Please model this.
Amino acid sequence: MMRAQWDVIVVGAGPGGSTAAARLAQAGVDVLLVDKERFPREKPCSDIYGPFGARTYEELGVYERLLEAGYVYPGVLLSSPDYTAIYGANGKGLTCPRRVGDNILKENASRLGAEVWEEFWVHDLVVKDGQVRGVRAKYQGEFRDYRCDVVIGADGSHSWVAKRLGLFVDDYDQVYLAGRAYWRGCSPPLRDVEVHYDPSFNPGFVCLSPHPGYDDVVNMGVGIQMSQYGRLSLNAEEMVEKFVAESPHGEKMRGAERVSDWTGWRVPSAGQIGKNYAAGAVLVGDAGNFVEPFILEGVASAVRSANYAARAVLAALEERDFSEDSLSRYGEKWEKKMGPQLRALQGMAVTAADADALNGLFGGLKDDPEAVSRVFGE
Model:
């Protein structure tokens, strides 16, 4: 008979979900980690596992494995519409194709004791007396309920868990269209991560991330607010072509060959972050809008939010109190630890809509390397 009762069910096995499951399993919690996909799977992203997540990877015993599979880039180069550039040195952040890195994190959660079920489709929540008590899902051809004390929603930018909780937000000024493809033949070879708010692309940006260990391909992606994208005459692919043809930062890509299809996705930035907990449930990663505004780095933020969620859930399990009030400790913790940086990046995202203001901001940051490090570094 298949099991149907757990302490915690984590919905979504990306970096946030795998981290939450690993933390809980490490603490002895009976945790089920599920995902609708079978791993390894493709995941459209800039492929950046930023430095703010490195300590967690080390504590969970998986950083060395990510290092073997990925590339520690020297730093991040950012430019404004007048080509003012700022540079932040990297510590332990790395690039790694998400199909590889996410699988490593999922397998690590299993190694630490989490049960992992793939091709598990959650379509609803089990709710009783106003509290989440589990999930309704299709697994191995059978629809049934799976019960637990707490559900952690880590099911991405279109989160079913958030929607069922009434916590899904879709503010087109804070939600971004993102797209990416892989390219071979960058000359000279790319080694830093680059983010360009280029005049050929304003008001969006282009991100380039290197993969020396994967035939030296470059992940070239785009990000632009949905509210702005609908007003433009060019689509995202045409905007990238314009960047490559016209920008000095695109020159290195002019002889490169695209070696993958374009893929696009919805990115909910922390500019719309709000309540991300309820009685019996919490949201992490994209499901909780934990994506850094301005640069749209979501992996490290997902990992950090998962850490704070796991702590709140552990306290709730110890007290046997899964009320909204009990789980509100999660909101208090992430706000204290992550809020200042997210608000600083949101201020930069708002400024980015005005090219002159963004140029002035970069001019100030260029002379303040400590500020650059606080926002983009370790």
In short: The domain at 8-72+93-170+270-350 is CATH 3.50.50.60 (FAD/NAD(P)-binding domain). The chain has eleven helices and 19 strands.
